[in-house]
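User: quick one, fold this
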Amino acid sequence: MTTNQDDYVDTSSDGRSASPAPSMYSFSSSVDGRLMLRQAYGRILNNQNDTYFLPADNEEHRRLDLQHQIITLALGSLYPAPNLVRRALAPRPGKTPAVLDVGTGSGSWAIDMAKQFPHCSVVGVDLAPPRVDGDLPPNCRFEIDDANLGFSHYRESFDVIHARSVSAGIRDFPQFLEELAQALRPGGVVLLGDGEMQLYDEWQEPLAYSEQGTHNFSWLHSVFFAGYNAMKTRGGSVDSPSMNPTWLRNIDAFTDVGWHKVFIPIGPWRYSGSDQRELVLAEMLREDCLRYIAGLGPYLLSEGYLPESVEMMQREAATELRELRVRLHSRWSFAWAVKK
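Assistant:
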């Protein structure tokens, strides 16, 4: 089965579904999906949440597929804290372990988890429908919902909850974590991961913002800085990656809080010929950043940047990346906790 953005229908006027699955939208093979999507600033965006303003089109989903491959390779697994995850999803008599993927995007992580754990039920939730080519695993389904509305309908329903690259769309991240805690069963694991909008230099130190014309000016950093400010203006919790361990520790329902940070070069500027894995990661991340820069257009244009200014910023930043004019790292932050 192939599912596209046109395969979904609004089933309720109150914001949630009348279908057995408690989602805002459910599958339908014959209904126009424009209710969930809108055209704006030259891209297709979700129509549920004005905070999250990255595209929701096939081009973005292909970028998210690439990002999924990068993170899986960087972690060496689909998830951090593998021992905790495998323990939470171990087969048990009379109970089907369940996984929730919040902000499922293209659906790649949810599908891979359904294949790796065929005895588990996997649900992917996002603001817009994923693009799925081929047949879904029988233990995987997707729903359309806004995580900012909460998960009271999912109280103690999941053994693993995964939320990756969602910070730009979440207005109150500590409250979001409280909701995830309530949706977990005792012994369940929450997994968080996000790339920071802060870029790092070749020594992995935070890159300070520099004005155009100064010695350390970078177009790539300028685009990321503008995107960060636009996300903050729209109410996104883009500072959450560095705060997640602290916020998880502040929730009484959680224990065994852990975290892990990964630096990845943006492009193969430091490749010495001895680490093939790093070369692949660096090349993939450069391509991901090129696509991400293009996807920031709606954020920047909606903030009042002139189209010609946005086009120039994107073009110059892309040239920096392609020609390896800058030596920068991206840092990915992961955190997890177990429900008591």
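User: anything notable?
Assistant: Residues 199 and 330 are 6 Å apart (CA to CA).
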